[in-house]
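The following record pairs a protein chain with its ligand, S-adenosylmethionine.
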Amino acid sequence: MSVNKRRKYDRGEQESLYFDCYSDVSIHEEMISDKVRTNAYKLGILRNYAAIRGKVVLDVGAGTGILSIFCVQAGASKVYAVEASSICLQAVEVVKQNKMEDKIIVIKGTVETVELPEKVDVIVSEWMGYALMYESMLSSVIFARNKWLKEEGIILPSYAELFIAPIIDPTTEWRLDFWGKVKERYGVDMSCMEPFARKCIMNQEIAVNCVSGEDVLAHPVRFAELDLQVATKEEIGAIRGSFSFRCFGSDSMHAFSVWFTVAFPGEKPVLLSTSPFKEETHWKQAILYLSEAVQVIQDTEITGDIRMCPSEDNPRHLKIHMKYKVGEHESQEKTFRMGE
Ligand SMILES: C[S@@+](CC[C@H](N)C(=O)[O-])C[C@H]1O[C@@H](n2cnc3c(N)ncnc32)[C@H](O)[C@@H]1O
């Protein structure tokens, strides 16, 4: 049997792989069919019509152009729709189909390299990845803000928050029980697979899946917030926070879950939430597995620190380092990786 060593990509290759993903229709279908996401952007943009009407907008990572179109619907006089992947060709068609060619200028290129003829009053962007920071697109938005946004300009959405909670993962329980039940079905005892299955499941580090509100074991804690009008590259390059929970009852804790919200400003702010207590979005929730399940009871205290940063090998990937202590158990440290 030959062992395939995973090839390391250089930075240029990593970037072209990243933009290739956005050249396909599937990812745009997934995003636009996420009603929670797309309606929150629509409402967040339309409710900010007073700031957008007659103004110039930059759409960072315009994709198929839907947010640029919402901005024209809110009264923008001009939108620069900057998109690095070849999906921008479709954005040109969508703009034409909506008869907005006089207002929306689609520009192919990265926002870090394109030249605009003027500064803008508003920046709009949908930059959020899994656990908020996967894909690291926020750094492009901050670059664009620093270079192209007028002093008094606004950024939509303008605020982001990150949350964490301990959870039970019922799928893990089911998958661990499975090997003991094979004998009932097929007459072959495979229960010896259980420790191996446990190791594989608990080793998967970060998964992206739907967490049900009833599987959350304590009140969630907001561990970081970002004011996008002023956030710096340094700040987003190492997001730190701490948490302290008291568990609701007796259960097996398998993981921590991390999710985010972003908010559009205004008299009636619009909140786009990816919480397990709200309607599902395509971001679902990030699940950070402990090395082994821990039993908690009512009021078990869980404390710790979390640090999120881009991975060294590929800055589009995410590294989450946690130190945590569950009740009387020894304090643990674990690095979780997404995308590696
Ligand atoms: C999450 S999608 C959002 C697409 C679209 N705005 C929407 O809401 O449906 C992000 C888009 O930004 C593009 N993008 C990411 N980084 C970029 C950059 N630095 N410059 C230009 N486009 C970028 C990607 O190719 C992708 O199409």
